[in-house]
Amino acid sequence: MCFPCSPIILNTLIIKITWVEITAWVEKHKALTIFMLRFLYTLLFYLMVPLLILRLLWRSQKAPEYRKRWGERFGFVPAIPAAQKVIWVHSVSVGETMAAVPMIKQLQARYPEALLAVTTMTPTGSERVQSVFCDSVYHVYAPYDLPDALGRFLAKVHPCLLIIMETELWPNLIRQCRHHDIPVVLANARLSEKSANGYRKFSGLTSPMLKDISCVAAQHKNDGARFLALGLTGTQLEVTGNIKFDVNLDDDVKSQAELLKSQWRGESRRPVFLAASTHRGEDQIILDSFEQIRLHCPELLLVLVPRHPERFDEVAELCLQRGFGLCRRSSGVSPSLNDQVLLGDTMGELLLFFGACDIAFVGGSLVPVGGHNLIEPAIWAVPVLSGPHLFNFSEASRLLREAQGMAICEGADAIAEQIVALLQDVQAAERMGNAAKSVTDNNRGALDKLFSIIEHQLS
To answer: Hey, which residues are catalytic here?
Structure first.
């Protein structure tokens, strides 16, 4: 028996069937597009391997450590026993590594049965891990974002959780972890508008990659909003704050800083100006401002700390060309009155240096690098100066400026003017330093929120 079918019902069925087919085709096409983009990305990465090796050789001319341990970058690492529980923490360089130190120490205390595998990409980051943790963690360089390198690494290390510090996102790494059921937490995550625009240009890779992340613990709601705009879902996002505010200064560190400050100031009690984490192009500006300041305060000691160790000798030569008496921290000798500049040519002492100075300038901000850690000097109640390029620390700089704990200086004249004013008005300098410290005191707690996320992923 046949039942008549009205044209409306027939058309509705045709439209429904067609729409289902179209939707299915679109989804299939989308998956194919993502696959092809990943394939092309991976192919390009493999083709770039010779260039990566040449880059390591080029960088090793000034930093010989780049010539070593290449096998680790391709996943050839020592195996960890399969029965061992492993938590993997990845921090790119020295800045992220120092931010991760309190978290790693708490992980060791809370999960004593677990081995912490800590990876970095740079020798400076590697040096910090080895110096702080010695043999208490498993440390190697992180593998390149190549499927075979990642496969070898994961087979040898077999982590149960990956914690990535700040914003180190690699498509194959995230995908491989998802494939092996390894949760991925992006900790202390920040995403500037500049970086977001860069990721947006490759949305076909970025959006699927973000969806494979278990949780993004963002420093600020603005960072979180940028991640959401790139494809992260609301259920994957937690705004925890910046764990750099949670640094604690123990009595031993305070004592060391007090002793160092006494050595630097000497019997004349000379004031100390620290210029920290400077980049090429900034040292000249700092030295220009220092020459101006010395017209008003000739006894001032400048402690100049380049960001990258391969630039130590270059900056030392700049100081000598200006006719300054120079003392190097690595010599172990305290500066005399004939030394106008102390070159901070050691690693891992910057937090201590902030505690031994009277005024601090934080570099990477007079040139468009995006700034460096403004929180460390603030913890010591030291007045903070910076250049205008602060997109990597936009929230911290906003809080410090609103509290009048920092000043932004556009160039040598502005830096000199600000420092002279603070040196001549000790009470104003003290108010500025205390205001900076109040910001750090009022913004603690991010580490506890982060651990709630970590515990959930490990449960």
So the answer is: 96
